[in-house]
Structure formats: structure tokens, C-alpha cells
TrEMBL record:
Listed GO biological process terms: gibberellin metabolic process
Protein name as catalogued: gibberellin 2beta-dioxygenase
Organism: Protea cynaroides
E.C. number(s) listed in UniProt: 1.14.11.13
Gene3D superfamilies assigned: B-lactam Antibiotic, Isopenicillin N Synthase, Chain (2.60.120.330)
Keywords: Dioxygenase, Iron, Metal-binding, Oxidoreductase
Length: 339
């Protein structure tokens, strides 16, 4: 028997039913057998960032080397001693849950958080592009705008602090990765600042259909790097050696992954890895993601020649991704810009 939809849940089951009838499918999703193979749960490389703040030069070098290695081999890693207070992150989670528990009709119509609410995938043309989640995708330029918060006034202060802390951490990691390429450590600060990034609040409701339903479809991130604070439910999977591996949650760690822009910038030294979220039939899942993005007119190019990719602005890349999603239901990404 399927669970009842609560007042706060978006009508995901209706959208799923429409796609199911349209295609007369009786299975959730189909994909290449090689890509569907699961090899179980993994623990991502775990990096203690206290080494970067240590006066001991050898410890800092070892920490930086671990970040570079994980970015090159995995495209994902976990960080502890990252400088963001766990009690504050708990407060962030409580505020996040409060806003998502608002009735769906209000979330969808009242313009909360810069009118950034979205659910499911309105461009989905088949079940392989359908996903079971809802989110607020907030540009950092709008974080401090009181008008977008309504009765959720305490959320503004928490989001402002989170954006500042995540931005500081993202720049610290970006410095390590650019220095390894022989560039000045502040080079990304010139094009990425506290006004050019995004915060995304995610909720994955309980899914009564199947554990094979996507919470978020397989994709790569269209940024330099992403920092994720997730709960202990699990569901995040990434592609490793042409197989999907499930990421084991670590309550003390934040997850970091490399985005498309760093893969181009590093000329494929750092890997932007495909990842997805799978649903859970028993419990809902929450996460918060910070995206380190440049200004739209920033030129993205390899740090050395010959380059694998054409030069492009971030605005051009975003436009191409959005056009592909509108036309096909999914992101094509970097293959569009190969030389």
C-alpha cells in the first residue's frame, strides 16, 4: 500500500504517473548495463583540513597533496576539521526542515527565497529523466533580501552565515587546487566571490514506488566545486571505474566534489564525476549544497596548451546546459565544448 502524500509534498506521484502512461513503461528506468552495475558502499577519501592551517610546512604539503590526489582520482572527497561548527550545521538543518514542511501550494506560489522553489523535472520526457525531490536554488546575491523570507525570518540569518562559511571553505580548497597547477592561489577569487555562487536546499520525500527512482538524475555539476552537507540517510552514488558506488554517510564530514569548470581549467587533471541520488521508501532525506561559480562573463579556459576544450564564458556554458535540458530532458555538458 502506497504512503499518503502529506500537505507539504509536491505532486511527484502525479508526474510519475503521467510519464508512466505516456510511455507505457512497466519498469522504472533503463540504462546501459555497464553503468547500472553497483559495487556496494564506499568511503570517500577522508581529509583532515587542520593540516592546511598547521604551521608545519610538511603537514600542509601532505594535506594539499591528498586534496589533489582525491580530485584527480575520485573527483570526490570528504573533509573534517573544516571550520564550520557542527551545532550551527544542526541549526541550519532545523531551519531547512521547517521551510520544507510548509504546504506545497504555499511553497510553489508565494515567492519564497527569491521564488527559487522547484520540484520534480518539468522538462522530463521519460522516466529516466524524472526525479523525486524538491529544492530551493538560491543565488547568493539574494540571500540577504528580507522580502523573500516571509515568516521564515530566522532562516535569513542562518543562510547568510552558511554562505559566508561555505564560501571561505570553497576558496581555501580552490587555492590548493590552483596552486598545484602553478597558478597564483587567489586567481579564482578574482572571478568567484560571495555574490556569484548558489546555495541549494534539497529535500527528497519518502518514495513509495521503488528504490530505483532517482532523487536526482545522473549529472555532473556546472561549477568549479561543490560542498555538500547531508544527513545520515544515504542515497548519494557516484561513478567510479565505470560502476556506481554508494557513498557511506559520515556525520562529521562535508562532501566536496569537483565541477565541470575545474575539469576544463585543469585540462582534465581534476575530474568532474557523474553522480546521482537514489530515493528511500522509509525516510526523507535532506542536504544543502554550495556551488562555487564565477561571474557569467568569466572566461573559462585550460591553464595550459594544448587544451582539450574550447574557451567559453560561464554564461555561455550555462545557456548551453539549459538549452540541452529543455530539448532533451538531460544535461550534455562538457562534450559540447571538446576541441
Amino acid at each position: 500500500m502506497m504512503a499518503m502524500r502529506t500537505a507539504s509534498d509536491p505532486p511527484l506521484l502525479d508526474q510519475y504517473g503521467t510519464l508512466l502512461r505516456r510511455h507505457e513503461e512497466n519498469q522504472v528506468s533503463r540504462c546501459n548495463d555497464n553503468l547500472c552495475e553497483m559495487i556496494g558502499e564506499c568511503e570517500l577519501p577522508l581529509i583532515d583540513l587542520s593540516g592546511l592551517r598547521n604551521c608545519n610546512g610538511d603537514e600542509r604539503k601532505a594535506c594539499a597533496a591528498a586534496i589533489v590526489k582525491a580530485s584527480s582520482e575520485w573527483g570526490f572527497f570528504q573533509v573534517v576539521n573544516h571550520g564550520i561548527n557542527p551545532e550551527f550545521l544542526g541549526e541550519m538543518r532545523r531551519e531547512q526542515m521547517k521551510v520544507f514542511q510548509t504546504p506545497f501550494e504555499r511553497k510553489a506560489s508565494c515567492g519564497l527565497l527569491n521564488d527559487s522553489y522547484r520540484w520534480g523535472n518539468p522538462t522530463a520526457t521519460s522516466l529516466k529523466h524524472f526525479f523525486w525531490s524538491e529544492a530551493f536554488h538560491i543565488p547568493l546575491t539574494k540571500i540577504s533580501d528580507d522580502a523573500w523570507y516571509g515568516e521564515f525570518s530566522t532562516l535569513r540569518e542562518v543562510l547568510e552565515k552558511l554562505a559566508a562559511e561555505m564560501s571561505k571553505l570553497a576558496q581555501l580548497l580552490a587555492e590548493v587546487l590552483t596552486e598545484n597547477l602553478g597558478q597564483s592561489k587567489g586567481i579564482l577569487e578574482e572571478i568567484c566571490n560571495e555574490n556569484t555562487g548558489f546555495l541549494r536546499l534539497n529535500r527528497y520525500p519518502k518514495c513509495p514506488i521503488s528504490p530505483d527512482i532517482f532523487g536526482i538524475v545522473p549529472h555532473t555539476d556546472s561549477d568549479f566545486l561543490t560542498i555538500v552537507y547531508q544527513d545520515q540517510v544515504g542515497g548519494l552514488q557516484l561513478m567510479k571505474d565505470s560502476k556506481w558506488v554508494a557513498v557511506k554517510p559520515n556525520q562529521d564530514a562535508l562532501i566536496v566534489n569537483i565541477g565541470d569548470l575545474f575539469q576544463v581549467w585543469s585540462n582534465n587533471q581534476y575530474k568532474s564525476v557523474e553522480h546521482k541520488v537514489m530515493t528511500n521508501g522509509r525516510v526523507e532525506r535532506y542536504s544543502v549544497a554550495y556551488f562555487l561559480c564565477p561571474s557569467y562573463d568569466s572566461l573559462i579556459e585550460s591553464y595550459k596548451e594544448p587544451s582539450t576544450y574550447k574557451k567559453f564564458t560561464f554564461g555561455e556554458y550555462r545557456k548551453q546546459v539549459q538549452e540541452d535540458v529543455q530539448k532533451t530532458g538531460h544535461k550534455v555538458g562538457l562534450p559540447r565544448f571538446l576541441l
